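Example 9 (inverse folding). The structure is encoded as follows.
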């Protein structure tokens, strides 16, 4: 009787441990995912899209920033109002393109740094005579705030602005 119970316990133990070891053996999860107990799980910062692939959460979050915006800017030089558009970068999943930026510049690009923030890295515009740098934040539905600096490359003039984008 004792041998039967011992045999049963050992058999069950081997069965369960065998299943655990093989649960992810033949499963290929692809990029940005790992297998956990036989199921592909997206890594942190990624989520499954409609094709069941793990993509950056920034791809979804980018849509919060895209569209046509009414802009009210408070700059060190003056106060401005104009219309600007923000679109998804055509090839870079973590980037945006801002047009009519500062009521003057097209193709100012921004890099998503989180689901609610982006950075405008230092870039040259106006035939390499102007630098632009800054950061933006999605504040709530229909509201983005961008703080940035525009400076002439020769250092003779600069303008610091806080832009309020609303839909």
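The amino acid assigned to each position is listed next.
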């Amino acid at each position: 009787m004792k041998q039967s119970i011992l045999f049963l316990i050992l058999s069950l133990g081997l069965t369960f441990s065998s299943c655990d070891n093989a649960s992810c053996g033949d499963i290929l999860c692809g990029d940005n995912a790992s297998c956990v107990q036989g199921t592909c799980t997206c890594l942190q910062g990624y989520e499954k899209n409609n094709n069941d692939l793990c993509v950056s959460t920034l791809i979804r979050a980018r849509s919060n920033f895209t569209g046509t915006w009414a802009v009210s800017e408070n700059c060190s030089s003056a106060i401005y109002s104009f219309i600007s558009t923000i679109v998804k970068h055509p090839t870079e999943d973590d980037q945006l393109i801002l047009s009519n930026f500062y009521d003057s510049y097209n193709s100012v690009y921004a890099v998503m740094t989180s689901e609610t923030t982006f950075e405008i890295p230092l870039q040259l515009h106006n035939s390499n005579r102007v630098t632009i740098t800054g950061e933006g934040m999605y504040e709530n539905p229909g509201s983005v705030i961008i703080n940035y600096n525009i400076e002439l490359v020769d250092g003779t003039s600069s303008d610091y602005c806080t832009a309020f984008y609303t839909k």
